[in-house]
Batch of 2 targets.
Target 1
Amino acid sequence: MSTSASLRTRWNVSDIVVASTLAVASGVIFWGWNLSYHAVSTLFVAYPPTASVVAGMWLFPAVLGALIIRKPGAAIYCEMVAAAVSALLGSQWGLGVLLSGFLQGLGAELILLAFLYRRFTLDVAVLAGAAAGLAGGINENWIASYYQYDAVGTVVHIAGFALSGAVIAGALPWLATRGLAATGVLGPLKSRRAHLESALTGRTRTAGTPAA
Amino acid sequence: MAVTARGFTYQHADRTRPAVAGVDLEIAPGEKVLLAGPSGAGKSTLLHALAGVLHPDQSERPEEEAAAATSTGDLLLDGIPADQARGRAGLMQQDPESQVVLSRIGDDVAFACENLAVPPDEIPARVRQALSSVGLDHLPADHSTAALSGGQKQRLALAGILAMRPGLLLLDEPTANLDPAGTEQVRDAVIAAARSTGATLVVVEHRLSLWVDHVDTLVVLQPGGGVSCRVPAGALHTDQRLRGQLTEAGLWVPGADPLAGLPAWSGAGRAPCASEPQAQSGGKQLLTGSGLAVHRQSPRRSWRRGPAPQPVLSGVNISLSPATAVGITGPNGAGKSTVMLTLAGLLRPHAGTLRAGAALKGERGQHLPDSPADWRSEDLTSRIGTVFQEPEHQFVRSTVADELRLSAERARVPGSRRPLFSASEVDERVKRLLHRLRLEDAAEANPFTLSGGEKRRLSVGTALAAGPQVLMLDEPTFGQDAHTFAELIGLLREHIDDGGTVLAVTHDQDFLRGLEAERFDVARFADRPEGARSGADAAGNGPEGTRGGPDAVGNGPEVSWWGRSGRDTSWLGRRGPLAKLCALALITVALIATIDPVSAGVVAAASFALLPAAGIRLLTFLRRIWIFAVASLLAVWGAAVAAEESGRVLLDLGVTTVSTGSLELGLSLGARAFAIVLPSVLIFSTTDPTDLADSLAQQVRLPARFVLGALAAMRLLGLMAEHWTALGHARRARGLGNQFLTQSFGVLVQAIRMATRLAVTMESRGFGAGPRTWSRPASFTASDALVVAGGAVIAGAATALAVLAGTWNLVWLN
């Protein structure tokens, strides 16, 4: 029962509550983003498909959750709870936001699965963010079809989404995880040493480094 | 219940030494123990271990062995290892917010019973009994937990623990965040509960006088070692050696003066500080407020929020002179912090004027506007420094030295971008402050990893580094030990001696005495009569002092329906959440399936027609949805510009064109985007999250641990929004202006801290292991079937009419 595999993958109470709370805090950050960057969206009026280059903002809970919890399902769970929070606060997409949340989380999740939940490095984070963006782009153009752009518009929209995901929902969450680990708040979680890991190999720096 | 520790040692992961080591202790059944010791002696660790919420690592990778959490020795409750005695010990922690799990008081108390699989028909009696034994039985069971004061929240937590019928009560500084009245109520409730249940009691507290006359035994832990003494509690009054030892350790020993160790100081001879503005002395005053009306929420009107809120205090006249101290006092929730934030230039007054005198503006300050609220962040920070109740709100850098350096660098010469301090002056200030704050050894440490006392000193230091003449502090001594208290007094006395002014929101009489501060009681400015202030009175003691009533959410997201008391009594509000969700899903799928204006129109019309059933007034509804209408216009424009062109060209923009075809498509998309929001607003504003979670776990059979975890986290939404607002204030106070990224990071840190404490609370109440029962069975009734049928009819009608009109097109085939 308590084999090393189940220890590695079973969520304990801290994992569940931290993941849920992160998702709820993300909802508050979404709201702060809306408020601070209302003007940003008007920049894209000239050619609306390019607006997706800031859409990575909606994807960051997926990769952040995955990097902090480091257990299967974290990306989907965090993104869906964050989506549920936006639905409760009133989302532009109504109930459809849950579908978006699921698909975007799934995009990130597949990348982490491909690395068997063993690598949480910068490159994996960037890939996962891009995959979440790609999934979001596919959903918004072909599944939920919120947009009906011509071929050029569709390509621009999806590429912008993936790029935005890679940066805002990939690299930034990776940096945030390191910053959080350095504050010591990740103590009960598997990611508590993230700030000591090398960016690309993921190996922990050897002892002698104070945990500050 | 008997407690036995034999050579118990626990080392947290990644630490070089154990938190507790070699503890040998016997506690008899029913014994009441006060557990004391200096900061870092491992008192909390021992309590957590007794509560069974510590989990030594079962290391999976050998290379991590050295850093793993380990436990050795025995810790037994009635002979059973503590981590296997689930539900036998109840734990209460310091922060009231993380002691509450669910959003209605009855549900919160029932939570532990459900986790321990108590039969559902037995639970209501247990809940009633527990609520009455902590004196909360006058409140209805569906009273909102968000509307409780800090003291009431702690008593609710006690009720949740008592409902488990535990043999051991563990309390970890249960009153550190409470005002004096709340503190005594909690203590009395705990003592009464321990007496009536015969449970063993272990309480950790550094204000010893609060408990010493109510317990049997005093146990003192020493850092890195075991128990240094175990004596009858009364010895604390008589044993001089013991008293000396505990005073040395920074504990609040009854009858000992916490100021005794400080050099003599007298503020006498300073100009009397005039709370009421004096007509002629305007020139000397630093800051003068006349007729101020204050509220957390900005007075700026907004379309969404409706009318401006009623101020919590009005007609406040106050003025600050150089080299004085003022203590803002008054009952909990009276608006003390709000007054302070307004005076600090962080909130705008709703009425009256706030004017900075020439003395505060300084020699180069002639360009500054009169009101600090209009100052640039950089000008504010070098004149008025603000120290927040939660020191972490102020931290933005990764080392202590950088944190101080940043403050010194941000100060600017008024009206220009030139720094106020030269590079060498900055270095000098940082060096001097590190010394004064006794943080030289921690200069390269991450601020978040400091001890509580060090964080408090650093938070004062970051404010002082920018060289402000006025220093404002919000409950600076909450939860601090006597050492930190005395150091803080010393720092503030120096500030006053240098001609500075201190204004503090505080309940602490020793603090007021230590600074010879003049009391400024705000109760007399209360706008609402005492009885009508239940919401504000209920305000707890979280990060910013006031919270609770829906209006306390202030600048946060609109979650006012969240904390409301009682249930939604509209027709839709009384229906089962699963049925509503099904109906909403049917309608949403019907809308997503096609891009046409007819189906969108049908759904929109149906939504408006259903407003009476949802008990939502038209104006309220319009206020909530107008922003989505704007978003739909953007959708129209997006398609018009960037969709496949067809038909006549209406507008040629050079690179792109708008044609009749693309405009028609855009209008359909816009109508659909607007229509998709309306039913979800209806459903979500009439659905209670707790009921929804019950449904999802019991009827849809989603994993209960995850559903309840998400539910407990959602309760924190309003709190998180308050953290967001406070973090914004702290950035402005530090001269950083608007900082979205560090503000987001700050919210994440607070979220994880809170989540970690909440996880401990939930686990100590039996959550997460084994089968559970449900005290609120979710059912599916005939009228729920009607709701689903209604959803199907709307979805069907939308589709059918669109097909008839010839506009229906399956989007996935396009």
Target 2
Amino acid sequence: MPSEFTVRVNGALVSVSAGATVAVAMVIAGQPCRNSVMGEPRGPLCGMGICFECRAVVNGIPHSRTCQLLCEPDMEVKTDE
Amino acid sequence: MNNYSREQFDVLVVGGGPAGIAAAVRAAESGVRVGVVDENVVPGGQIWRGGPSEGPHSSDASSWLLRLKKAGVIVLCGKRVFHHPEAGVIMAEGLDDVWELSYRNLVLATGARERFLPFPGWTLPNVMGAGGLQALVKSGLPAQGKRVVVAGTGPLLLAVAAYLRQHGAEIPLICEQTSWRRLARFGMSLMSHPGKITQGLQLKRDIAGVPFEANSWIIAAHGEKALEGVTVSHAGRTGVIKCDYLACGFHLVPNTELAILLGCRTRNGYVQVNDLQQTTVEGILCAGEPTGIGGVDLALIEGQIAGLAATGRTSEAQALFPKRERFRRFARLLDATFCLRSELRSLPSPDTLICRCEDVPYSRLREHTSWRSAKLHTRCGMGPCQGRICGPATQFLFKWNPDSVRPPLFPARVELLAAQPQSIPEVTGEIQ
């Protein structure tokens, strides 16, 4: 794996270092991980896989906990609606 | 379909932080079959996240991680325990795999999480836990040039501030809710813990010049789509600080859900253990934060005692008791110093969300008299985190007691729950 590569977050390319989690890519992109029941934007809170606030759609799989998932080249990430 | 695997262990450890690693290493010395199951990508837990190169515990971390590697322990990473179908068996899931793990002895080393308390604006993106933001920076989030207010309570705040600063962040303020009086008493009592003083002095150097206030807490976070600033209360006055991130955590709460699911008795929120770290369920031991929040030093000792006790080496375990007692005194000191002040109970406004999973506001909860009633009528605590965030918050806000734990421990995928062993792969050597 290259030391730096890009992933796509809500359509925009984001450059990340190898070892970065998907949650990191979403925070760098300034995109919410999910929209809440009432439609509020949410981002990571606990950073350790417990709060589920960072869940997003990763390569088409919804509700993925992005703080526990490493970025891979050309990954497609979207805000969980 | 998913891969279904079975594994048998003499000693199985849940949790790959310091307590779990110490337990596994000491148990493996007896030549028995030892496994560690952990949900993170690599072992080390939260405190050793990011590998041995980081932090004041780096030499401990690298030596224990090396010992784990050499001990012949089977380490299953990225697997989360979600079920306990029968005595002597737990189930874990990975991304596309299910594991049926049987054991003679089980060591629970499930660690702790941060306590979060609600205040207006705490659900905005970029408001994170103190340990939460640190974990993200360790996972590659650039901190260079970012303004980060660090707030809440506990020794973690200083460690996080120091870490963020080393990584280029600007810390306009650290807000510690406890009083100067308590902090002073804590400082005096540290005289009997020389190791802690060394760590403390190192920290003091690392955060020299960073503004620090006691008797201080966040009363609101502001921003349109994400955090833009916070309002801070300090000694009866308030002020607004612009920032990119708020790192806010109120000390730690133990992860006791698996212990409770397994039938282990708890006392005052902690898993009850005897001198040998044995729980009230035969064959199940517990070490580290779930038995009392005491930090990495206590976790390493308790883990070793558990690993030795699980393999019948009682006298070697007993030799570690005096050391454990010393670190337990430090744990009690932490509890006394960083207990939460009652003013924090009045921070939420009626529309402040308490349950972030189900968006349940404070106004809908305060009419209830118990956690159970609130759950049934408002869905508070019924979302994917299963009350792990709002449970400790409502315990503080309303003095509600958490109720029983039911499987699955985490929202497991339905197909995983229904999975049956189709072919059992032969396991040889080490699995990662």
